[in-house]
Protein: adenine phosphoribosyltransferase
Organism: Penelope pileata
Amino acid sequence: MDLHHVPAAREKGWYLALMAPNTKGPHYAWLDPSRLYCHPQGLQDCVADLLEPFHGDPIDLVAGIDAMGFILGAAVAAVLRKGFLAIRKAGHLCVETLSQPYTDYSGREKVMEVRTDAVAPGARILLVDQWVETGGTMRAAIRLLEQQGGVVAGVAAICIEDSEGGRWIRERYKCAHCVPPRLQPRFDHHQ
């Protein structure tokens, strides 16, 4: 898809076609959203679709998950005019942190960190990542925020797959994603 083309009729998720499929193997995400983030209207429409369910909800802070969630989360924070908190992979923060182990989508054991002084007790936080496949990364981020007394006001991602972890998140938190219902099965099965 042309990085400058904008369809005349822009239904929810039209920008998903901008994403490129994985050509490197199982240790990489299924789709790469870099071209979507480069497309001005695609990025704007993606953020608008993610924020639509939260219109009118009180949100104090936006948190994004390392690394692609930083891009989408920062864009969401800018639109909401809220601050942005980076939830990092272990070893990147030079301040006091809380850490949480997790298993990522490829089955690798990792650790996530967040600084200890960024979340006020009771702060309502919109948590953003590019993708929720197994839910391990998102669940670790939720634990880190809740350990500090934060309230997860919602979870937003380009796609929340219908996996055990995705269902766990949807059952407990208000969620938003960009995949139209008719396309969800294709995204769940990586087609």
User: Anything to note?
Assistant: The mean pLDDT is 93.
